[in-house]
Amino acid sequence: MVNDRLAFILQDSRMVIEERRQQDLCNLYAVLRPSSEGINTLRLHFTSFVEEKAREAVGSNYAIEPQDLVENLVKILARFDEMVTQVFSSDPMFRKAVEDAIRIVINQQSGATSFFVSAELIARYCDTLLRKSSKNLTEVEEKLDGAIKVFRFLDDKDVFQRFYSRMMAKRLINKQFISADVETQVVNKLRDACGCDYTGKLMRMQRDINSSQGMMDKFFEKFPLKQFRAKCDVFINILTSGVWPIPTFDIPMKLPVILQPVIDNFNTFYHSEYSGRRLTWIFQLGSVDVRLSFVKRPVMATMNAQQLAICLAFSDTDTVSLSEMKEVTGMADEYLETNVDCLVSAGILRRQESASILSLNMEYAPKKPRIKILAPVTKEQPQQEKEETEKSTGDMRLVFLQATVCRVMKAHLNMNHATLVKAVKEQTQTRFIPNEVMIKKTIDVLLEKEYIRRSLTAQDVYEYIV
To answer: Which pLDDT score, from 0 to 100, does residue 189 have?
Structure first.
């Protein structure tokens, strides 16, 4: 009887959903439930409505702040989850309809944004919450829970990981994290969602930071450096090569004389502890707190090692030429100019009428007793980072797919093409969703490398070469 009058019953279903007439929806659901065709049509109308509202929340081209993207989607999830509970009696079909709609929207790609925008925005939202601030920890944890909920709908989880690991590295190295426990909680939640392999490097990064504290304690036991530590303190992070997403080269410069005893002593200590290991110093990632004594009121300035070298050139004089500065610091022109510009913009230095002469700004009077000098950033740098991430992600995906195909084939020894593609998609879905073109390309590479071969007895079947 319901099927006979289905068109009449469903004619206003979309309007009922849009107007959120919950009692009418409850009645409509109860009437259509016995009819598979009717309930499926209602589900499609509901999915379309959720998707429409989610698109409104994120915008067509993702011209939205990370906070708005995540928090808007969290609100939509909560709103429609409640609606499914109250109106559709927690029907799994309608709960899945909400999830499908959110998944479609969060993974959409538009012509203006061909890159993995959602992954980057979610990572930046987490980074903002996890940075040291006066935020309430309970509120931060609640918002991070919401971010993880949104993250679970993301197809490009490997891209999120690459953005997140870079941001996490900066937080840990610069000690800008709000709480070590909260950092661990987020990594654990990512592990629960994607497995141990996904978070292996993130966990190793945390262990490096924790072990660095113990290393420094042992170092100062052997080398007290009382005269040096009476003037300043020092902390050295020992980071595992290949784990941290940081540059492996350092900016050429002459190390400030004041730091040389610490570096020499630490080299001696480390090689006595670990004779088979090699230390590579990356001073550009370090930061120093410098007391500016030439101002009327004491000021502590946080800057990088290159900026420290520039400031120390003024220890015995108020004026230095760029040519003299280059000789003292040993920096190339491009690095010297960009770091000098940062100190000039901050107000610590002044350029004389001749742009090649620098002097201390004796009138410098910051409002706060502690300031931070920004590191040089070129306009092209953010775009370059995105391009590098895109390229490295593509390369990593090909390697990951090759390993997955080999693992599947080794377990089954022979498989037909369709079954192999399905098995590979199942094993990669915690990182990304590969299309069939990518999988076909991977299979062709492995055929060429002779890890697998085509069967001589069956069509469209591959065999693993033992």
So the answer is: 95
